[in-house]
Design goal:
With about 230 residues, the protein is mainly α. It has six helices and two strands, in the order ααααααββ. It has a domain of about 150 residues. The chain is elongated. Strands 1-2 form a two-stranded antiparallel sheet. Helix content is about 55%, strand content about 5%.
Length: about 230
Amino acid sequence: MSWPVTHSVLNHFPIALVIVGALMLLAALVRPMRGAWLYALGSFILAAISIYPAWLTGESAARFVREAWYIAPGAVHRHAETADITLWIVLALGLVSLIAWLSIVRAANAISPAGWLRTLVALLAIASIASVAVTSYFGGKVVIESPILMNPTPPLAIPVPADTTPAVAPTVAPTVTPTPGQVVAPGSAPGGAIVPSPTQPAAPAQKPAQPQTTPGTAPAGTPPAAPTTH
């Protein structure tokens, strides 16, 4: 797995954890509950733990794509600068959240940390949300504003795949030539069906041939006449 791919996988964890922690922190501030505070602070601690691998893989990935022809000039630099700021803000949030989390766990009846810790966690959470959002925005622009994606036509160096679909030869129906007095029935099977023409009468049936007789001879099949006596 390359560094750009590894960074693309890891950078979502601190983003999600900061967002979830901020939502739970808002719920804990509106309605103080021990479980909500522990959940919010735990999310911030995990975000601080996961942001360093995401930042480290991002630094390694930047060396591969910073000068690549398919990356817009300056896009990686802007993303890297905001990522550096986000790293320190989220780390500070995780450290303060750890102190606040321990203060709640050590006191059996504590619902929330001390007032100054609540204020500091809330301010760092707001800063983390803003910094993560800006860093994610510039990270997305690295891909979205890539010249290879902005150009509607492929570069000349990239061959366009040819159509490999085999051509299908058209099927030609056999041609039937009707004889005189016949037509091809419309809507019939390919090649047509031969039917008599309605405009021409059918040929009359031929009569059987009559045997020809010569004078003085009886037709064939006629019994001979009886001899006469005088």
